[in-house]
Amino acid sequence: FRLRPHVPEQLDVSSLERHDPPEHLRTGAVVIVVPGGGYIWHSDSNGLTFQPTAAWLNGLGIIAYILTYRIVPEGHIWPAQLQDFELAMHIVRQAHHNSSNG
Q: What 8-state DSSP symbol labels residue 6?
């Protein structure tokens, strides 16, 4: 899902993609995977980097969120990338806090 659905997608493509482990393995742990690329590109742009990472985490019973953050070639300079991570942390914490409290 998009981090900022109220902002037009052509201006902000930041998103989180959730990967859940099988029910019988779930530990309650959550990890946000932030692909590298030096704010210029995403190392997962070909879909090869994050899928094995998410699968590995899922095999350990961990929910994996993959963050796609804003990058420099799209016109987003630092600290936009940090802001995307901070917002992702807030969203994930809120979602898992709410689900653990009924």
A: T
Q: What is the mean pLDDT of residues 42-62?
A: 80
32: enclosing H helix or E strand: strand 30-33
DSSP reduced 3-state for 36: coil
Whether the CB-CB separation of 92 and 62 falls below 8 Å is answered with no
Q: How does pLDDT run across 22-49, given as a tens digit for each residue?
A: 999 999 999 999 987 777 777 765 555 6
Neighbours of 86 (CB within 10 A): 11
Q: What does the mean pLDDT of the chain come to?
A: 87
Q: What is the mean pLDDT of residues 79-100?
A: 89
Q: Return the closest-CA partner of residue 18 out of 60, 49, 62, 71.
A: 62
CA atoms within 13 A on the CB side of 37: 21
DSSP string, 44-76: TTTS-SHHHHHHHHHHTT-EEEEEE---GGGT-
